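Why Acetolactate synthase? Reviewers of the renewal asked for a concrete example.
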Amino acid sequence: MKLQQKTTKPLISTETSSGSSIFAPSQSSQDTNPTQPTVTQALVELLEEFGVKSAFGVSGGGIGPMWATLEHSLIKVLHFRHEAGAAFAAVESYFATNRPTVVFTTTGPGITNALTGLLAARGDGAKVIFLSASTSAVSRGRAACQETSTYNMPSSGLFTSGPLFHYATTVESSEQLPEVALRLALGLAQPEGFVAHVSIPTAIQTSLLNAPLAPVKFSRSLPTAGEDAIAECIRLLSQKPFAIWVGFGARNAATEIKQLAERTGAAVMCSPRAKGIFPESHPQYLGVTGFSGHETVLNYMESQRPDYILVLGTRLGEPTSFWSPAMLPNQGFIHVDIDPEVPGTAYPTANTFAIHSEIKVFVKNLLRYFPSTSCKGNSRIAPTTRQSSYGQIPFAPTSLVRPEILMDAIQKVIVEGSDAIVMAEAGNSFAWATHHLKFDQPYRYRISTGVGAMGHAATGVVGAALGWHDKAIAIAGDGAMLMNSEINTAVKYEAPAVWIVLNDARYNMCDQGMNLQGLKGIDAHIPPADFVKIAQGMGADGIRVEKESDLEAALAKAMAATIPFVVDVIIDPTFPSPIAGRVKSLMKQGAK
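Here is what the prediction returned.
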């Protein structure tokens, strides 16, 4: 099965034939408009020029004029039930379409409710523009309803650039809009992620723009290593065996990485987020590292530890490595990342040759120096690939479904039987899916390991389904589904979303994890919920599965459904999930 990525080319190109980026918004809509545009009209027209097709949010009085302008634009407005869900959906819509998305909220709690999703957008490398309202100057400090001003909210970090937003500002007059346009254009044109916050007081939203926005023109080259750095990489990698460690930041270089591995014979491992960038059925593939990773990786590092590991597009943080000394190569890392601050941070004492480059450009340059035949230096690498357990474990007569058997059914019916995007929720759902599912294409598996917020997949699946225009699957626990699922939103917009719920009436990662840490007497149980009835009560449909022999038929019914669908699977809560590495990491940090 060959997957074709369903993306449309954004209006902002991040790579031209000369390796530069150019943005020049047209003014045709203003030239033909005899009336003077308002600030919100000018901003929305700008967003259209940036290639924005969808805006996710929750309305409110403060954002009213902006909301109304969006509703009458070419941008599709998707009104959610909670701001966090809207932000998570915007993140996943970006990854499904490669187009920037908008999140909109009203003042006060609208802003604070969206922050977790926006933090996930920053951590995952999405391109999201956050539009919010703030209290008009005349009303500030006078106990306005849901007041949003320096009288009652911190401005630093929320309305200024920093760790949360690459760019943030409050528009206090229409004269600021040209600068806002320039900052947004520059940020969206960069190859990595970009999260911006533009807050506009209600009164300013309806103020008239005094002068039309001038065209913005600039060029930006992709960062790449110089010839000296490439030559040194070739020298190091040609001498002795090496391995490749693939991260999510390398997702646009899947073809080139496969070519490099096959030409050199290098073993390949990946971070949890990078599943599928290198085919997991490939004979040179070792497995996933870190959280819910595979013993095959550790076995390789113990028996055939390479001199160098070429790290492509991963921070090597705790979810990817647990900072384990077992993952250190004999000589050191050759660490390539588009962010120059990444290499060396996870393993500060390790020998690291840091290279600042966009991954695809770097690997293409590297390939010029390797012959099409296998490199002698890696002739002794013989990785042991993981074998699928599907069909090898008989169905149990018990009324409880083992999660491992559920994953086997998902692999057969969904991963191998469709082109659907598959997302896994934080918790045991993440652990089971990452450990057991196998993907041979990039762009099909989505998890968030940085923020790791519950509800990300359960709500993000709506944005993914709408952006993908096809089935998107969320594998989620019952705790996450009760927290925030946006089934009702999916019904409204006819999103082809499917939720597969691991229903065990508890926060089972917490329950199992506490027991492994020796922390007894913890109550992580949840009153049982019937998610089929919940779904049907909101206009969706579903099916409950209590026997392993019914799994494939239930999943097939979900994939054939024409409305949002929930598969409520009653799973065995005692079956241990593959979270031992995470628990050991916590215990090293003092959680024992």
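The radius of gyration is 25 Å. This is the kind of structural detail the renewal will allow us to pursue systematically.
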